[in-house]
Amino acid sequence: MNLRLKKVVVLLSIVAALPIAMVGCKKTGGVATCKNDADCRVDASGTEINGVCYMGKCEECAEDSHCSDLKQCVNNRCLSTCQADADCGANSHCDKNFCVSDCSEDVGCSSGEVCAQGRCVAMAGSGGSMVGQSLENVHFDFDKFNIKPEDQARVAKVAEFLKANPSARITVTGHADKRGTESYNLALGDRRSKSVQSELVGSGIAANRINTVSYGHTQPVIDENNEYAWQQNRRAEFIVEGN
User: Fold this and answer.
1) In the prediction, which pLDDT does 41 show?
2) Helices marked H in the chain — which ranges?
3) Alpha-carbon gap, residue 34 to 26, rounded angstroms
4) Is 144 helix (H, G, I), strand (E, B) or coil?
């Protein structure tokens, strides 16, 4: 190979290597690797991500100062603080005082958990101390959201359970019978779940351990048109969310 041909080969090799050299944030096994923050300004496709280099990987943040809009750095993600689901946007909920995305399937949850109503909850039979707990439903009179005297004991048992399991959190789901409009029943279910939450807070349970959600008349226990079915469907249910 003559000298001129060798120069051409070397030049072509340099040109071919330029795109790789220009992309600092590389993908290794699906994970962006880096040496410094400059490697995390854009991803391998050239999209601006403005990340930081943390332990050799490109992350969204490593400390609170890397986040904007008063967000905090939690597990290398910038998250908004919250007290209830209403503080978060669509397709997200309040989890341990931070807004996190709803799950859509079980693969998005940790081992021993399943995706239920957008949240990762303990799987029945997984052996956790809170799994299998019998937290009885609270029922309401027609078009009412106040807790009846006969159901006060059921709410008290939930409070006792939460006090005995200080790391436990619950979601109170509010439901209505099918009479009434969708919007009205959603609002009524919301009042019922918040009524139970208020009762629990009055019993000494921190409000940030109790999430509330309304399903209106969309999840009946008994899908029939009679007084017994309507009575069973006017309820608040409890979902234990983990250890």
Assistant:
1) 82
2) 3-22, 152-164, 182-202, 227-233
3) 7
4) coil
Domains of the chain: 1-63 (no CATH), 138-240 (3.30.1330.60)
85-123 confidence digits (pLDDT tens): 667 777 787 776 778 887 777 666 766 566 665 666 655
Beta-strand pair 92-95/77-79? unpaired
Task: Give per-residue pLDDT as tens, 30-75.
Answer: 456 788 888 888 776 777 777 888 888 888 888 888 888 888 888 8
CB 136 within 8 A of CB 154: yes
155: amino acid identity, one letter: V
Six token digits for residue 148: 């009846």
Cα–Cα distance, 10 to 18 (Å, whole number): 13
In terms of C-beta density within 10 A (0-12 exposed, 13-18 middle, 19 or more buried), how is residue 188 classed? buried
Query: Could you write out the DSSP letters of every residue in 32-69?
Result: EE-SSGGGGSB-TTS-B---EEETTEEES-SSGGG--T
Task: Tell me the β-bridge partners of 119.
Answer: 116
